[in-house]
Amino acid sequence: MISPEDLIALVRNYNPKTNEERLAEAYTYGEEMHTGQFRHSGEPYFTHPVAVAAILTEQRLDDATIITALLHDTIEDTKANYEEVSERFGNEVAELVDGVTKLTNLQLSSRETKQAENFRKLFMAMSKDLRVILVKLADRLHNMRTIKAMRPDKQAQKARETMDIYAPLAGRMGMQWMREELEDLAFRVLNPEGRQSIIRRFITLQRETGDVIHRITGDMRSELEKAGIEAEVFGRAKKPYSIWRKMQEKDQGFSRLSDIYGFRIITATEEDSYRTLGAIHQRWRAVPGRFKDYISQPKSNGYRSIHTTVSGRDGKRVEVQIRTRQMHDVAETGVAAHWSYRDGVRTQNPFAVDPAKWIASLTEQFDAEEDHDEFLEAVKLEMYSDQVFCFTPKGDVIKLPKGATPIDYAYAIHTRIGHACVGAKVDAIRVPLWTRLRNGQSVDIITAEGQTPQISWLEIATTGKARTAIRRALRDADRERFVKLGRELARSAFEHVGRKSTDKALETAARVLRLGNAHELLARLGAAEITGHDVVQAVYPDLIPDRSDEISPRRAVIGLEPGQSFERATCCQPLPGERIIGITYRGRGVVVHAADCDHLSNYEDQPERWVDVHWHDGTHPAVYGVTLGLTIGNDAGVLGRICTLIGEKKANISDLEFVDRKPDFYRLVINVELRDVEQLHSLILMLEAESDVAAVERIRDQVVTHSAKL
After folding, report:
1. What is the C-alpha to C-alpha distance for residues 536 and 544, in angstroms, rounded to an integer?
2. At 407, phi and psi to the nearest 5?
3. Where are the alpha helices (DSSP H) in 637-676?
4. Which residues are known to be catalytic?
5. H or E segment at 187?
6. Where is the ACT domain (predicted)?
7. What is the pLDDT, as a whole number, of residue 127?
8. All domains in the chain, ordered by first residue
9. Which is it for the CA torsion 125, 127, 129, 130, positive or negative?
10. What are the pLDDT digits (tens) for 559-610?
């Protein structure tokens, strides 16, 4: 364990004016509070807070953050309390420690209103001081570095949480090095065979081709010297998880991957960065579509750099990042650059941004009356998204999250433009509203008087601002339609448990659910913001629905006219539990599509054929076919084991086809019959956990639309 003297020396290296007595006092207090506590490895527990503090010294953080790291588990796990910490170390440290404690206890994947409410409160506190996130990320990094001491099931749980939540969060905060290390540590737990396979292939490649990194680094330095540019050049092989992800995304083997090496050039000035780009492109051929200029269009976390990919004579591609030293400091430390010290004073980096700004800009979009669940959803969308930059017809820049659509773009300009949107032109070409926008595109929104938001837009929009505005407009404009549908849903839900949805029952449910009245309750139910099960349980909390009675496929969909039949669309294979849209056909009744189905674009100009429908709330039989794509290891008995696992999940295999055979892997398409989307997710998670399964994909219309890869 690092001694107090050594920890203080680490801080003093970048902050000679540090309060050594206060750091020593925090060290002693934390050690005293954790006396008698031990980690899974058998070490004294206090070794963990000290290691977290040491990680934060690498980012040159202030005394308050280092002290918070030393004490971050005291309020939760020891006899210490907020008042005592505040009295000893001040309100600033006490609030930081309390914030880390709340973040530790938060279940980000929960959909319960209580957790959403906690998240809102914590999020508002974080907008004042994001150092709690820096401490929590360092805490998770050390836990992942020492994860081998935990039980295998706990290792898998922590690794999956790290991959899904903390690694993307580190990336969003601008700390790319931490994101890469967290991903690789999680990958080591979730798929050790895949990671070792890539490492072995790297060793083989190096043996066959020699030290490629050293050779290319030398060539780049030579070209820069010819151009009279002073710069540092660094090269490295990409992390195993990064390569694995590229293999899955491109469906290519290791030998076919080209850009597995990355190079970084650090220049003295911004002008030298662009001169360096010219020198590199003169010497090597640029790969089309792989150039990004984050210097002229920086990311919201302050990241600035030029990215380009070039190809040599042998066809091998390498990625090159070019930036100045100050830009590099921000790229390495992300939001921590806002608090970092050098020579005893806060660093004055012109590219460091206030990390609270992007949170403040988000919280402004929501008023106090907004639902907690909606706030939680919007926050998560904002936190875990990269950005793209699009241009208005006048040349103004609009920043949007990666994956944004013209709907998001329209609402980013103005809510009025979003509400009236009927179409869009991207680079002067008319495109559907669910088109994913890309960097540098020019977008022109087409509006029409009398247009109102459609319920299907909720599946198209990706930004919290757009989704919130759409929901609010739908509640106002389509309230009566939602009330009518909600009344039908309530009647069905109450009948399912042998009760009637009387006015008194609905008023009681509204009061329990803290809604204004029965009218508001029905509107929320019709808009799918609450479920029929929620309403029934509010009135009869002790009544357990009889789930043994399966819902007949003939009455599985609610919202049809009397005598009207329906069928599932074969293009998207919607499952009970998914949001659906009905399209009427003469002589065929209603064809039910998933709300995000691309084929709905064929009916964009025929709104009279669209029908608001919902799946019946209850237990459905396993008769709804879904197509899955699997990549499995080529070993004896693997296919039989996979089929057995699927059977154990009560899913029937109706068809199976091999579509690709490789020396190491087989790719096959399986048709399975399921009850609902919950069973699908459970099946995918189970297959993910199987070591011989490299990838699981849901296939719609023979195009992969959902991927769950390790």
Report:
1. 10
2. -60, -45
3. 638-648
4. 76-77
5. helix 176-190
6. 627-701
7. 55
8. 4-190 (1.10.3210.10), 207-346 (3.30.460.10), 473-539 (no CATH), 557-615 (no CATH), 624-698 (3.30.70.260)
9. positive
10. 888 778 899 998 899 998 888 889 998 878 899 998 878 888 888 778 788 8
